[in-house]
Amino acid sequence: MTFAQFEEYSLWLGIGGLILFMLFIVWDLAKKSRAGRFGTLILFLALGLGLLGFIIKTVLVEVMGIG
Q1: What's the pLDDT at 67?
Q2: Which of 3, 15, 48, 62 is the most exposed place for a label (fewest CB within 10 A)?
Q3: C-alpha distances in angstroms, 8 versus 5, 17, 25, 30, 39?
Q4: CB pairs under 8 A, 24+ apart, for 6-14?
Q5: Could you tell me if 20 and 29 are in contact, meaning their C-beta atoms sit under 8 angstroms apart?
Q6: How far is CA 22 from CA 33, 36, 65, in A?
Q7: Is 39:33 a contact under the CB 8 Å cutoff?
Q8: Using an 8 Å Cβ cutoff, are 31 and 60 in contact?
């Protein structure tokens, strides 16, 4: 394994871990604020839009070959 491959795998693993941690934080926020089902859904939708935008941007860059 080259150093570049190690960096790429580490980057994807680190970003994946941060995404999972962010989802846990939103779930914990909904639980502690007793938001209920609808409130939890709104929290995940509102706070998850930034995450979704990041994922869409990454996919578009790869598909278009810009990066």
Answers
A1: 60
A2: 3
A3: 5, 14, 26, 33, 37
A4: none
A5: no
A6: 17, 19, 28
A7: yes
A8: no
Burial (CB count <10 Å: 0-12, 13-18, 19+), residue 22: middle
Q: What is the DSSP string of 14-48?
A: HHHHHHHHHHHHHHHHHHHTT-HHHHHHHHHHHHH
Token couple for 9: 């795998």
Q: Whole-prediction pTM value?
A: 0.70
Tell me if 61 sits within 8 A of 67, measured CB to CB. Answer: yes
The pLDDT tens digits of the residues spanning 1-48 come to 899 999 989 988 998 899 899 899 999 999 999 999 999 999 999 888
The residue whose two tokens read 């846990």 is 24
